[in-house]
Amino acid sequence: MITETTNIFGIRAIIEAIESGSTINKVYLQKGLRGNLFYELDKLIKQNKIATSTVPVEKLNRLSKNSNHQGAVAQISPVEFYDLEKLIESTLEKGGTPLFLLLDQLSDVRNFGAIIRTAECTGVNGIIIQKNGSAPVNAETIKTSAGAAFKIPICKVDHIKDAIFLLQASEIKTVAATEKTEDSIFDIDFKQPIAIIMGSEHRGVNPSILKMVDYKAKLPLLGEIASLNVSVACGAFLYETVRQRLQ
């Protein structure tokens, strides 16, 4: 089983990787890159909605260990991602009470890894992330997750809103963790089929997503600090779900 994120370099090699169906975390492109082969790569990247970043040649040299990268380096994900619709269907078929976790553009890989670990420990059926703007599943994510990234299904969607529509259509309620509510986490019925939505480290849950969810809930904060680390807050939500379901 792969435990390290693999870097591949060279425009033709990346094109072949995409066409073969490899799961690409991100493609790093050199500033000012031009040419027919680059335009072919750029077209494939856009068609497959792969995250990209334009960087100086020095970063590409580091990523490729000074090999002939031709202005492009790609990171292949060490895990395969699940199809959300199929995962929901299989979860419902198995019986039990579904529990999903949506991460709205969480960006820190260590927070992501910690959340994956807690999610696996609390019986989450699947984690849903957005293709663009989300922390990658890389070697550091896997290390922080203590290997849990290999044990829990992770789905990528074009937008978190797509996942919310699909979950709600499957009669799975959605609850967003946010301070922009008067409702406490202890007011929510987590015994029903539910998906918990956690926001990014700096912005929280996107306001447009807050308008879509079935419930909003906050954690009581008794000190002077205004918020919790997202992985800690996520753990509190997941273990409140466990507590209610074990009663």
Sequence-ordered SSE layout with sheet pairings:
Layout: E1 6-9, H1 11-19, E2 24-30, H2 36-47, E3 52-55, H3 57-63, E4 72-76, H4 84-94, E5 99-103, H5 109-121, E6 126-130, H6 139-144, E7 154-157, H7 160-169, E8 173-177, E9 194-198, H8 207-210, E10 215-217, H9 230-246
Helix pairs in contact: 1-2, 5-9
Structure explained in plain terms:
With 247 residues, the chain is an alpha/beta fold. It has two domains: 6-76, 2-Layer Sandwich (60s Ribosomal Protein L30, Chain: A), CATH 3.30.1330; 84-246, SPOUT methyltransferase, trefoil knot domain (Alpha/beta knot, 3-Layer(aba) Sandwich), CATH 3.40.1280. Helix content is 36%, strand content 19%. The protein contains nine helices and ten strands. The strands form two sheets. The chain has a six-stranded parallel beta sheet, sandwiched between helices. It has a four-stranded mixed beta sheet with strand order 1-4-2-3. α5 packs parallel to α9 (230-246). The model has no long low-confidence stretch (mean pLDDT 91).
